[in-house]
Specification:
Blueprint lengths: L2 H11 L5 H16 L3 H5 L8 H15 L4 H5 L1 E4 L2 E4 L9 H14 L6 E5 L5 H10 L2 E6 L2 H13 L5 E4 L11 E6 L4 E2 L8 H6 L6 E2 L5 H13 E10 L5 H7 L4 E6 L5 E7 L1
Parallel strand pairs: 3-4, 3-6, 4-5, 6-9, 7-8
Antiparallel strand pairs: 1-2, 9-11, 10-11
Length: 274
């Protein structure tokens, strides 16, 4: 089957999206499902085909029309430089989080082995990528057993050596201290649910998105954790909700820190030096 024919079939049969959304979703599906890139489409790359594959694609078209995320249909997402296994038990890795990882890699690539803790690791994409690029000792923790199962799957798939542990940060008492803490924690108050895209609400785990009342609860908790378990001259890297930047500033008033914007111009990341 020619790749252009598959693309045309998706554009024709998948419903409930704007033209631009449909093009982006179709391209994402082709890449994750068949490893067909935009440049492959230009040369009309051929794909091995069968009746079973056609039936599978027909079923995927129904799922796409019902607004099931491409990543959940293919159980995969590209993050930084690898394809990661994903399910509806963890957040789908976002481009903004790639920016966070890139920021850490550029800042910390001094060839010194470090102890790194990823708090709320989810799919493990942050921990695995940092382990691969910084050659450091990386641990990832998460309060969700299902998330740890996904993270361990990614650990195996990428041949890395991250130690993933099922634990809340409040309960975690490590035997080692860390040079770097990193976290993209839940930071949307439940009262703001109506501001979140409906498709995200339906398909992604609320425990990874929402906090009960206090939008900076996990940041406060991690700061307290750092007082016992972060080495001198260690750093904390956060992904934040820019709507609560004033609360973050107040929390960190006694620390040296820097707020960094993402590629959309939003205040998205904080680096804290201790």
């Amino acid at each position: 089957m020619q790749s252009n024919l598959i693309y045309a079939e998706l554009l024709k049969k998948v419903k409930n999206y704007s033209d631009n959304e449909l093009k982006n979703i179709s391209l994402k599906y082709l890449y994750l499902k068949f490893n067909i890139s935009s440049s492959d489409l230009l040369v009309n790359k051929s794909v091995k085909w069968s009746k079973e594959i056609q039936e599978d694609v027909d079923n995927d078209i129904k799922l796409l029309t019902n607004k099931i995320p491409v990543q959940h249909i293919t159980n995969s997402e590209f993050f930084y430089d690898k394809i990661f296994y994903v399910t509806n038990k963890t957040l789908i890795p976002r481009p903004e989080t790639e920016e966070l990882v890139n920021l850490i890699i550029k800042s910390e690539k001094d060839h010194q082995k470090k102890n790194i803790l990823d708090i709320g690791t989810g799919s493990g994409c942050i921990a695995v990528t940092l382990s691969n690029h910084l050659k450091s000792n990386v641990i990832g923790i998460d309060a969700s057993k299902e998330a740890i199962a996904v993270a361990n799957n990614n650990n195996v798939l990428t041949s890395n050596k991250v130690n993933f542990l099922h634990s809340k940060v409040e309960d975690y008492n490590p035997e080692i201290s860390f040079d770097i803490l990193v976290s993209n924690p839940p930071y949307i108050p439940k009262v703001d649910k109506d501001k979140v895209d409906e498709n995200v609400l339906i398909n992604e785990p609320h425990s990874a998105l929402f906090v009960d009342l206090d939008p900076i609860y996990f940041y406060q908790t991690i700061i307290e954790f750092s007082k016992k378990h972060l080495n001198k001259k260690g750093k904390i890297y956060f992904e934040i909700n820019q709507n609560y930047i004033n609360e973050i500033n107040n929390l960190l008033q006694n620390y040296e820190f820097e707020v960094i914007k993402d590629f959309y111009g939003h205040k998205r990341f904080v680096i804290i030096k201790t």
